[in-house]
Amino acid sequence: MCDQTFMAATFGPCDSCGKASPLMNIYIKSEAINYCSFCVEMMACQQLQKGETLQSLKKESDSLKKKLEEERGKLNDVELHQVAEKVEVLSSLSIKTRRVLKGHGNKVLCVDWCKDKRRLVSSSQDGKAIVWDAFTLNKEHGVTLPCTWVMACAYAPSGCAVACGGLDNKCSVVPLSLDKNENLAAKKKSVAMHTNYVSGCTFTNSDMQLLTSSGDGTCALWDVESGQLLQSFHGHTADVLSLDLAPSETGNTFVSGGCDMKANVWDMRSGQNIQSFESHESDINCVRYYPSGDAFASASDDATCRFYDLRADREVAVYQKDSVIFGASSVDFSLSGRLLFAGYNDYTINVWDVLKGTRVSILFGHENRVSRVRVSPDGTALCSASWDNTLRIWA
Amino acid sequence: MARDMSDKEILKMELDQLKKEVNTPRSAVSKNCADTIAFVEGLMPNDPLIKGVPDDKNPYKGDKGGCTIT
């Protein structure tokens, strides 16, 4: 008769996975560890420190998250709309469509104003980027790009170039020439190279640097002349859908939001993630800094827009209504920061009172989803881009 | 890139980030909200979308006359 015998000194629950099995008594740095043989192998192969497993990391992460919530909660002594009770209620706004820009052959995905307050660049699913004069409705330039779904476009601060990118995984800078006969696409220069689609781009304070966000989960800062990667920002665990630069002249931070439901604030020089906010319940489609630079707003597929204060390090307002059930795709503030314009997938733009948290007005007019809303640099007009192939100027 | 990282690496990255964040300096919400409100009230009188701009100054409103056809 052969009895099978194990070389096991003890049998019991494993210190690591908790399952009852024959344990291997090993000593690490003179400490007795009782792990089952499977866990010992896992430990050796994955080079985890003693006691580190997916569960323990998750537990530590959850407890730190709770501690962070507590620390933030200590300073949450009042709500924004409570402090704002003394503020005068807004009188009704007289904002109407003043211009409809037609010309794109397919969904308009992005729009950006020029610093001269009258020109705009818009990009579309048809692969074209068009530069318009908003006062006269004149189309000044048109660039055809080799890919469809140009999801991001930006005007250079000097007004002499535009950047656009999308499904081609690149962001290209096109210098705008006054010569009508010149083929702009020939002068196009690829600056940013990502491993997935480019979802957002913006110039920094000069024409020389470009900041991009991508579906590969990273943001990156590029030198336009050489195309060199100056800094990359890792920290999101899913596609990054939007980014916005802090408004001040000396500012060197930006905020990004993505499909991991997090909004992160980054330091551009060090590449560090300074603050992180996770209170949305679905993808964050758009983030936008407040005019003062001390706060930002985000729009999400969970049909809410939220307002976060950076010095208090927490969310201070949520803009939602039971009747608003479609995701918000884009947000922007009016010049004073009193109004928040948010474009939704139910074809409307809701205007929220930032301080009181109430909806002031609804702007109807588009015949398909609103993909982007942008207030002009001097605050006189709002431009909205939509999947109905048009852009509307509201004033 | 996030999609190339294993779950363990992602958790480690999140953990490191949280450890840094717990020590961030924070100030009270009431003070910051008061600052925000002061900022807005200072700029609101000049906000064209709230106050409105007289038709003759607004480049978007009104027709600058029609065109005459002769």
From TrEMBL, chain A:
According to the record, where are the WD repeats?
Answer: 101-133, 191-232, 233-276, 277-318, 330-362, 363-395
List, alphabetically, the SMART domains matched. WD40 (SM00320)
Whether Coiled coil counts among this entry's keywords is yes
Domain of life, source organism = Eukaryota
Task: Give a GO molecular function annotation for the protein.
Answer: signaling receptor complex adaptor activity
Residue ranges the record marks as coiled coil: 54-81
What is one process in the GO biological process aspect for this record?
Answer: G protein-coupled dopamine receptor signaling pathway
Please give the InterPro entries that the UniProt record associates with this protein: G-protein_beta_1-5, WD40/YVTN_repeat-like_dom_sf, WD40_G-protein_beta-like, WD40_PAC1, WD40_repeat_CS, WD40_repeat_dom_sf, WD40_rpt
UniProt keyword list: Coiled coil, Repeat, Transducer, WD repeat
**GO cellular component terms listed in the entry, alphabetical order:** cytoplasm; heterotrimeric G-protein complex
Q: What quaternary arrangement does the UniProt entry report?
A: May interact with RGS9; this interaction stabilizes both proteins and increases RGS9 GTPase-activating protein (GAP) activity, hence accelerating the deactivation of D(2) dopamine receptor-mediated signaling.
Q: Please report which protein family the annotation says this sequence is part of.
A: Belongs to the WD repeat G protein beta family.
Which protein is depicted? G protein subunit beta 5
- Which species is listed as the source? Oryzias latipes (Japanese rice fish)
Highest classification ranks of the organism: Eukaryota, Metazoa, Chordata, Craniata, Vertebrata
TrEMBL record, chain B:
Which Pfam families does the annotation name? G-gamma (PF00631)
Which residues does the UniProt record annotate as the domain G protein gamma?
1-70
Q: Name one GO molecular function term.
A: G-protein beta-subunit binding
* Claim: NADP is one of the keywords in the record: no
Name the GO terms of the biological process aspect: G protein-coupled receptor signaling pathway
Q: How does it sit in the membrane?
A: Lipid-anchor
Cellular component annotations (GO), alphabetically ordered: heterotrimeric G-protein complex
Q: Which UniProt keywords apply?
A: Cell membrane, Lipoprotein, Membrane, Methylation, Prenylation, Transducer
Which SUPFAM superfamilies would you find in this protein's record? Transducin (heterotrimeric G protein), gamma chain
Q: Where is this region: Disordered?
A: 50-70
State the oligomer form and interacting partners: G proteins are composed of 3 units; alpha, beta and gamma.
Family, similarity comment: Belongs to the G protein gamma family.
What job does the chain carry out? Guanine nucleotide-binding proteins (G proteins) are involved as a modulator or transducer in various transmembrane signaling systems. The beta and gamma chains are required for the GTPase activity, for replacement of GDP by GTP, and for G protein-effector interaction.
- What's the protein name? Guanine nucleotide-binding protein subunit gamma
Organism of this sequence = Oryzias melastigma (Marine medaka)
